[in-house]
Amino acid sequence: MSDIKKVVLAYSGGLDTSVILRWLQVERGAEVVTFTADLGANEDMDRARRNAENFGVKEIFIDDLREEFVRDFVFPAFRANALYEGVYLLGTSIARPLIAKRQIEIAKDVGADAVSHGATGKGNDQVRFELGYYALKPDIKIVAPWREWDLGSRTKLIQWAREHQVQIPEDKVGEAPFSVDANLLHTSSEGKLLEDPWVEAPEYVYQRTVSPEAAPDQPTYMEIEFEKGDPVAVDGVKMSPATLLTHLNEVGGKNGIGRLDLVESRYVGMKSRGIYETPGGTVLNVAHRAIESITLDRGEMHLKDDLMPKYAELLYNGYWFSPEREALQALIDRTQEKVTGVVRLKLYKGNTTVVGRKSPYSLYSEQHVTFEEDSVYDQYDAHGFIKLNALRLRLLGNRDGR
């Protein structure tokens, strides 16, 4: 890696990536370009700029990617109803390919020959970032300091920072109780006091949702309008993708929606315990399945459900730019052409309940399902339908003497 001349660093402005920035300058002798993505985590972007300037960085990129994030990454995944291991809405996973994409674009623009990130060698993010880098620029060089340096503990990291004039925030001097990753879709908390999966997470871990017990005693009703599988309005008010998700986060968070205590299977092989908060995403997932329930044919819906675990696994493992993910996305998007209409929801103390749904493309026929007399369905037809479907079972029964 000694031949690296210019590197684009995914930079948050915090202690870890500031140490990485200085380490790249000192140990690699590289010119560093910083890139900070605003994905709706309410982080201090000015701090990131100031800190980069303090290290003598000349090229500083701070990009507001909130709309692109929700429109081009979150919404496609929600069209698939993607849930990893049945429950996780992939809030961290979906953000990484966008960061990688923008990093590579900057690297091309500034003539950098390398990119760098702050992901550790134990986690999934190193895989997600680097698969994205290689997919978009196959000859790119990658510097992953946590896999290369000997700063294997918080103590060593802070000591190195002090020796190399890296400012250490007061709250970082001690051992952090847990780590947090956040964006507009979710907040993820992991590590330290959360590592024992038997111990309940303390209430202060939760940052964007009230506890269900503390949520209002009166339910909140809302209507979400969809067009071709994507939400476009709430309670009749049209909104941009990022604005809509922000609004759902606020309403969902106030009602204690979207908490998840999960032990997941990391791609690198180990199990990890995380506390996730996805208030708006949880509301959106329930609503999307509800509008699909009246607009998708049974075959389409069941095929989507069969494919969803594979799609979710691809996202979780970092294969956003793979041909198989893109092929699945094309199929999923084809099913969404008539997924248009309105869903009415009731939010109450941690629960999101569907209480109504309507669509101009609804396949629901009250004439066919009514318990009253009708003229559109001959119930005797079911006799032959059942008998034909039972034929193989009867043949098996005769052969095996059941």
Please, could you describe this protein's structure?
With 402 residues, the chain is of the alpha/beta class. 44% of the residues lie in helices and 19% in strands. Helix 3 (66-79) crosses helix 4 (91-110), helix 3 (66-79) crosses helix 9 (241-254) and helix 4 (91-110) crosses helix 5. The radius of gyration is 25 Å and the shape is elongated.
Keywords:
single chain; 402 residues; alpha/beta; Rossmann fold; Argininosuccinate synthetase, chain A, domain 2; 5-stranded antiparallel beta sheet; 14 helices; 44% helix
What order do the helices and strands come in, and which of them pair?
Layout: E1 6-10, H1 15-27, E2 31-38, H2 45-54, E3 60-64, H3 66-79, H4 91-110, E4 114-116, H5 125-136, E5 141-143, H6 145-148, H7 154-163, H8 170-173, E6 179-182, E7 187-190, E8 220-227, E9 230-234, E10 237-238, H9 241-254, E11 259-265, E12 271-277, H10 279-295, H11 298-317, H12 323-335, E13 341-348, E14 351-358, H13 366-369, H14 381-400
Parallel strand pairs: 1-2, 1-4, 2-3, 4-5
Antiparallel strand pairs: 6-7, 7-12, 8-9, 8-13, 9-10, 11-12, 13-14
Helix pairs in contact: 3-4, 3-9, 4-5, 9-10, 11-12
